[in-house]
């Protein structure tokens, strides 16, 4: 595989074209951002950690019938993916109240939701990625009703699998963000990444509200030990995946 040119550079990844028209190369960066890129920094090794975790989770999801854009990982910080047209919606699945849900509703941090909550946000930095209703999604022609229903169904399926997987890692899945894309056959594929950057992850064995945090909140809230938390998540993921492959 040869890399042709840079197609796109985002906050966490650089996407390159390759000599295969429907295959792209995602290069994961160590750059870290928060609050719509108002806070910037770097997390040592983050690119390789997030790429490896995402690769392992995409492979596990494929086994469970969830179609993703993942092809393979030629280097620790690189992932070959199928070319997709990203649906401009960030899909957030919440199991426990945290972050903006607490700020916007008054729910207490850590409140277990009676059922998973699926939310859609407009993927637009200039607008601050606002929360959307279904009618606003259709008004802006961001997705069809059928696509929204299918994405919601997939998000709940993915949540069910990830809850069990993270629990086997000794981690509680609080909430997480997903992105989906359409391939050349207009098939919806799970895209982007699943990592401590996109998931809220709490150590099951830790009751302290600060020490339990194993995700990007450590960077957002200046909690320290960010690299250690990411490394710990990686090691637990690899241990569980290795045990499944025995």
UniProtKB/TrEMBL annotation:
It catalyses: 5-amino-1-(5-phospho-D-ribosyl)imidazole-4-carboxylate + L-aspartate + ATP = (2S)-2-[5-amino-1-(5-phospho-beta-D-ribosyl)imidazole-4-carboxamido]succinate + ADP + phosphate + 2 H(+). Pathway: Purine metabolism; IMP biosynthesis via de novo pathway; 5-amino-1-(5-phospho-D-ribosyl)imidazole-4-carboxamide from 5-amino-1-(5-phospho-D-ribosyl)imidazole-4-carboxylate: step 1/2. Residues 6-236 form the SAICAR synthetase/ADE2 N-terminal domain. Keywords: ATP-binding, Ligase, Nucleotide-binding, Purine biosynthesis. InterPro entries: SAICAR_synt/ADE2_N (IPR028923), SAICAR_synt_PurC (IPR033934), SAICAR_synth (IPR001636), SAICAR_synthetase (IPR050089), SAICAR_synthetase_CS (IPR018236). Gene3D superfamilies: ATP-grasp fold, B domain, Phosphorylase Kinase, domain 1. It is an enzyme of class 6 (ligase). One of its GO terms (biological process) is cobalamin biosynthetic process. GO terms for molecular function: ATP binding; phosphoribosylaminoimidazolesuccinocarboxamide synthase activity. Its EC number is 6.3.2.6. HAMAP family: SAICAR_synth. Belongs to the SAICAR synthetase family. This is Phosphoribosylaminoimidazole-succinocarboxamide synthase. It comes from Trichormus variabilis SAG 1403-4b. The gene is purC.
